Each structure stands twice: as structure tokens, then as C-alpha cells.
């Protein structure tokens, strides 16, 4: 793309540029759409549709664009709701299970709780992890102090500041994990000693003794949920989006056609949700797809047999 292509364009020019992606005769509807959505965001949906012209048998029209956008909104709302279950569950599991096992509410501030190399065999990866760990751990210590001492932002933590009954005490893990960003918590988990990682899986996902391979898979599922949550939270396009790699459970075999597509996020949710929420999520997703005016199978938004794959994955859940 040339520098000339990056110059700002006004609304009328944006309408004309949308004709690259979809057919429409009247500018009025497209004008109202772009006022609400914005050209760049709308063009991502248009580009996705344009990439499926062969399946559609024609260039997509504005009605399909609008319907795809509505479907994306519904999917983002649904995925965000169930990402919340995983996020809260993860915060609780890490703080409760590990602190009780160690009888140490400050384990997360102890450098000995971590494996800076992440046990990587590759010398290059090991050194990279070790360098990044230093930054991560220093940020963790600084973040704990900022949360504890910021009176304006966290007035409810007055007991940990001057004059409080816990003056100058560090925040116990169940307090810190309630305030820290989910991304930071996922990163912290990835650096924990393997025995601590296994505590979370063995106590939180009962059904088998978990191996190092299980832990590695779990880390990718958490990362997928974290990225999915951020996409939904910031209202970014979800349909057609690829993200971090999801590893398949060692019990499953070939359920994932791709380890970075939308279904791989569905797979990760399926693995981490408890049975009741797992069922509710599937029912809700089925209803959204059923009432949508978009041919989601034709556009390859999810595999046509996603429900049967979901049930197979569910049967192998912990």
C-alpha cells in the first residue's frame, strides 16, 4: 500500500471505497452504517465476504454485510459472557488451590514459585523466557505495590495502607488476583513451577492425573480465552479472525481442523467450562446460528459439524 492510500478520507469517500467490497445502489443505508461502525471496521467485514465470493457465486451485497455484522455482535456477546466464567474460575483456582496447598498466601510474590526457563529444552527459547521472566516478575512486584498504595483508585484497600490494620502487608493472592489484569494472571501461570500448575488442574479438573503435556495444553486454552475475551471486550471483528494456537487434548484426535480459527476457541471454552455452562453455551450458540440470516456454513464461520465435534470434545473433558 502506498503512502497515498493512507491519507484520511471523508464519509462520502468512505462510501465509495466500500464498493470495492460489496454491491449497493443507494448510499443512504451505507452512510448510516458507516456513521455507526466506521469505515475501517466495516471494511474488515467486507474483505472477509469478498474472500468468499467463489462460495457465494457472486460479489456480496450490503444486506449480507449488515447481517454478518449483526451475527458478529451476537457472537461477541455470547463468547464474552462465557469467557467471564473462565476468567473468574481461573482467578479462584490459582489463588485458592495453590495457597491452601502451600499454606502461603504470598506464593505469587516468591521468585522460587516460578521456573524462569519454563523448562524449555531449546537454549534460545530458554534464554528468551528467562529474560522475559525478569521483566514479568519486576512488573508483578510493582503492580502489587501500586494496587495496595493507590488510595484514589482502590479506596477499599485502606486496611493495607498507613493507619490500616494491615499496614504495609503485601496483598494476599486472593486480593491481588481480583485486581490484576487477566492477561497478567495467565502469564504468571505460564511461569509457575510445574508442580503448582498441576495443582490447579488436579484440583480444578477432576477425572485424571494430569501430565506435563496436559499443562502445556491448558496454557494454550487459557491464552486462547484471554485473547478471545480481549477481542470481544474491545468490539473487534470475531468472524474470520485467527488467534493464538490451541493444542488439542491428548485424548482427542483430529477434532481441530485448524488450531487458530474460531472453532478452536469454542474447543477451548468446551474444555474449561463446567458441565452446566458447557451445555448452556452450546444451546445459545446453536440458537444464534439458527436465527441468523447468514449462511455460516457457506462462509466457513464454523465447521458444518461443529455440534458433533463439540460433543466429542465434551465427552473427553476432565
Describe the model.
The chain is an all-alpha fold and 318 residues long. Helix content is 60%, strand content 0%. The chain starts with 10 loop residues before the first helix and ends with a helix.
| Total E-strand runs | 0
Category by helix and strand content: mainly alpha
Query: How would you spell out the order of helices and strands?
Result: HHHHHHHHHHHHH
The count of helical stretches stands at 13
Into which percentage range does the β-strand content fall?
A: under 5%
Largest sheet: none
First-to-last CA distance: 48 Å
- The helical percent reads 55-70%
- Rounded to the nearest angstrom, the radius of gyration is 23 Å
On the 0-100 scale, what is the average pLDDT?
94
Instruction: Give the overall shape, derived from the CA principal axes.
Output: globular
Poorly predicted sequence stretches spanning 5 or more consecutive residues = none
Throw out a few tags for this protein.
318 residues; mainly alpha; 0% strand
Short structural description:
The chain is mainly α and 318 residues long. The protein has 13 helices and no strands.
List the helices and strands and how they pair.
Elements: H1 11-18, H2 27-37, H3 39-50, H4 53-56, H5 62-102, H6 123-149, H7 173-179, H8 182-191, H9 194-204, H10 212-233, H11 262-272, H12 275-291, H13 306-315
Amino acid at each position: 500500500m502506498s503512502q497515498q492510500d493512507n491519507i484520511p478520507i471523508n464519509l462520502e469517500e468512505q462510501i465509495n471505497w466500500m464498493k470495492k467490497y460489496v454491491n449497493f445502489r443507494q448510499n443512504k443505508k451505507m452512510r448510516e452504517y458507516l456513521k455507526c461502525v466506521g469505515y475501517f471496521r466495516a471494511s474488515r467485514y467486507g474483505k472477509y465476504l469478498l474472500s468468499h465470493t467463489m462460495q457465494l457465486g457472486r460479489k456480496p451485497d450490503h444486506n449480507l454485510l449488515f447481517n454478518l455484522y449483526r451475527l458478529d455482535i451476537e457472537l461477541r456477546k455470547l463468547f464474552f459472557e462465557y469467557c467471564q466464567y473462565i476468567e473468574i474460575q481461573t482467578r479462584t483456582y490459582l489463588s485458592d488451590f495453590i495457597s491452601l496447598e502451600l499454606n502461603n498466601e504470598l506464593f505469587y510474590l516468591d521468585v522460587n514459585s516460578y521456573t524462569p526457563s519454563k523448562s524449555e529444552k531449546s537454549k534460545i527459547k530458554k534464554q528468551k523466557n528467562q529474560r522475559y521472566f525478569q521483566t514479568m516478575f519486576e512488573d508483578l512486584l510493582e503492580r502489587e505495590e501500586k494496587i495496595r498504595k493507590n488510595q484514589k483508585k482502590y479506596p477499599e484497600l485502606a486496611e493495607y495502607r498507613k493507619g490500616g490494620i494491615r499496614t504495609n502487608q503485601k496483598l494476599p493472592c486472593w486480593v491481588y488476583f481480583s485486581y490484576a489484569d487477566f492477561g497478567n494472571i495467565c502469564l504468571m501461570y505460564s511461569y509457575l513451577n510445574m508442580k503448582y500448575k498441576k495443582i490447579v488442574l488436579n484440583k480444578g479438573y477432576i477425572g485424571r492425573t494430569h501430565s506435563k503435556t496436559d499443562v502445556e495444553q491448558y496454557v494454550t486454552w487459557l491464552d486462547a480465552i484471554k485473547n478471545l475475551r480481549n477481542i470481544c471486550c474491545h468490539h473487534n471483528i470475531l468472524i474470520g479472525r485467527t488467534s493464538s494456537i490451541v493444542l488439542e487434548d491428548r485424548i482427542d484426535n483430529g477434532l481441530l481442523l485448524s488450531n487458530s480459527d474460531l472453532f478452536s476457541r469454542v474447543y477451548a471454552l468446551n474444555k474449561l467450562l463446567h458441565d452446566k455452562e458447557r451445555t448452556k453455551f452450546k444451546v445459545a450458540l446453536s440458537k444464534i446460528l439458527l436465527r441468523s440470516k447468514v449462511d455460516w456454513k457457506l462462509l466457513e464461520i464454523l465447521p458444518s459439524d461443529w455440534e458433533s465435534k463439540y460433543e466429542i470434545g465434551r465427552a473427553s473433558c476432565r
